[in-house]
Design goal:
With about 450 residues, the chain is mostly beta strands. Helices cover about 10% and strands about 55% of the residues. It has a single domain, classed as Outer membrane protein transport protein (OMPP1/FadL/TodX) (Porin, Beta Barrel), CATH 2.40.160.60. Strand 7 and strand 8 form a beta hairpin.
Length: about 450
Amino acid sequence: MIKKTLSLAIGLISAQLTMAQGFYVDEQSALRLGDAFSGAAAQADDASTAFYNPAGLTRLKQKQLTFNLSAISVTSEFNGSSTTLASTTVTGKDVSAEAFDILPSIYFSAPMSEGLVFGAYLNAPYATGTDFGDNSIGRYFSTESSITGIDFGTAFGFKVSDNLSFGLSMVMQYLSATVAQAVNTSAACKGAELQGDLSPFTCPGLGIADSGLGTSTYDGQFEMQGDDLNIGFTAGMLYEFSPESRLGMHYRNRISHDLQGNATLEVPTAAETFGNLAGLVDTKAKGTATLETPSQANLSFYQGLGKFSLQADVQWTQWSSFDTLSVKSDNDVIKGVAGPQTYNWVDSYRYAIGGSYKMTPALTLRTGLALDNTPIKDKQTKIDFAFDDYKAISFGLTYDLNKELAFDFGIQKTLKQKRAIAQGDITDPSQNLSKLKGDVSTDVLSLAAGINMKF
């Protein structure tokens, strides 16, 4: 009975992997960042269209090589309270994290024949992380979460008529994730004692003083790292009403990953006696977790108006495919620690509108606005992923040094988000006998620079 109580008390470990599911990174092009990705599937001005819509490759009449470097700064801060068993305050540092990700990308296109163009790309459309530290007041829900997803794609765009093009892309996607959180050992011991499951022992008799409740003195640490490689596809269509007016559609299928790696559980010396009794011991074992990157579809429109252009985009993401998550292992300790979680996220839509102005023959200015609906319901909001609907404004420019060389720059500022959370339950062992209640504020700033070469 003691082992059952303890395993339930730390059974929400797998929840931290959800961070990966809610953070698709649009910032794969400096040119596109400048107009808030408002015409990504329709404009098709450089080789990055191999990623945003391979059908647009047919508009590129000579070889192109495009390099981009994006920087994304995310700051998150929790303001509120953290409690554990018997409404005891959890002590520790404030919950805050600053993440700064550098994301390189490269795109290539080459005409193969009249109406057939080859494209290739390497980028990182899933890349983020938070590190709250081992001693924050939110440590029983997350100490660290990180995700890296790298895509290598090969694409073909082909014309079926003067106005209509189609495109296909095969994507090889590598995904890796690291998740960690503290184990509330002192509350697990006290909870077992209060329920009579510890008899004839007491927590002080096993070396866990009552005064340690809510402190990090007896905390265990759980961490899991895993990675996987799998293949998916994208498909696109581009219809050109005229040389300056076109409609683009792009679909990206979901890719399922069985992340395989190591799960590690560490128990401090002060809690070893209780841990041995309850079956909670230092452990390193193999584990797997199923995680998928969701399906997406884009509809984009581009209209040139002399020196001006206007574009718009609607993006649908099938977050509803993410409803449960579990970590599997042949090790009994890891199986007891990492229980299944249910989420019930909803599909989301992103809307963007933007435009450009050719100020001089060499200089083009861009701007755009975007609104992205969060897929996470209020009841599913968690400390390590508490994004709300985001509203963003973008600015950018392209400078053509000559006919073969151009430089792109973009910046996007997301308006500050604030999301209320009430995560956990101090009476529920499956919730680590802990609760967070308060607000999470998030700031995001994205910058990108790129170079485009034609030859």
